Amino acid sequence: MTDNRWPEGFLWGSATAAAQIEGAAHEGGKEDSIWDAFARVPNAIAGGDTPERAVDHYHRMPQDVALMKELGLQSYRFSTSWARIKPGDRDPNPAGLDFYSRLVDELLEADILPWLTLYHWDLPQALEENGGWANRDTAARFRDYAVTVYEALGDRVTHWTTFNEPLCSSLIGYAGGEHAPGRREPRAGLAALHHQHLAHGLATAALRELAAEQQRDLKVGITLNLTNAIPDDPADPADLDAARRIDGLWNRMYLEPLLLGTYPADVLEDLREHRFEELVHDTDLRTIAQPIDFLGVNHYHDDNVSGRPLPADAVPGLTPTDRPTSSPFVGSEFVTFPSRHLPTTAMGWEVNPGGLRTLLVRLTAEYPTLPPLYITENGAAYDDVVSEDGRIHDSEREAYILAHVDAVREAITDGADVRGYFVWSLLDNFEWAWGYEKRFGIVRVDYETQQRTVKDSGLAFARLIADARTDEAALAAGPASARV
Ligand code: IFM
Fold it and tell me: From the CA of 440, how far away is ligand 1's center (Å)?
């Protein structure tokens, strides 16, 4: 580290996901994803909201890219919709590919690095009808989809993420039931977990082969949502064991196969009744543990966990709230037990920037083969108010972002190799089972008019980027020009 506070080339960006912003859910050849179908299930989504229109990014993409440029973003992390690119997982859809091709061109023209995620939870519904991620064949279908996207965009996109937060699209979607496809089948959740790992490995290998053939620069990785599982009472063996189990199920079941080529023995033991090992074929772990160029880390909050019996007001499932929440695999243990008396966001999530620093330092210490890290998501939902001056003075979100950015800087000082930070999210958007009720954007969207207004947090983030870039340029030019 130098006195400009950030390592050279540190990347500043913002992130979104296709189903959360695009809208045009049945336009341009796109067919149902599991989220379109899930939104039709009564009471699955708060307020009966759907991703049908979202924030209309499909039609407003050039203006949205102009907004990114105005904010000074160096990179934009977006996802492609499988159901738009290969509706029903059939033949490639030229209109779908064309949308992403135009997006990439627009970004490059604005000098913004496209950072592409292939899967941010929106499986084509047709594949779900064939078993979805519980069906091993879906891993091969994903590899073929990845190849289609690479063939269309690989000449211009260098940074590829296979999966975003597979925990959510496997265990929460197939065992917890709170996310699409809304299944509550523990064994299907575990099958989805393993098959998504396999899909990651197959796609990574295929992309590497194509890039090598064409002598292209390729950076490929995966994004995990990682937590610190904190025992509610560190002196209580039941709480300590609950913390071990949550850490195992939510962190190590992802990190270890991907980075070490093994599944954690203690978790397999916990899951004995589900016969997890039977899902793992001979060469799978070798396929899964392909070297990756980066690990994306999404972190919003820690999880305070306890092994004490569930109280009467517990809510089933995995979504952290301000009430105790149970997990389908940990028996009576519950998480996000709200006893730490920390401030919380509108999601009921604790605000504790030190947790991000701890997490990054822990990863660095625990995984010697860890690739460079990028914070691919961090941010906060708050109940924004539009002031009389038309502005959104979202001081809590601004403070949240700045404090977490500081925590990243501290982790770097402690030795973590973190190379970038993407704030979640560029725009207010469709927050999955919460619908449009929870706003994470640094840019407000008026859902009636689709008007965009940069919030104070967005302005602060833009200043932060500008300062970091000025310092970097000054440093490159020599000490005389350093910012005061
Ligand atoms: O909106 C989501 C995103 O899609 C995945 N990570 C967490 C965000 C906030 O819940």
Answer: 9
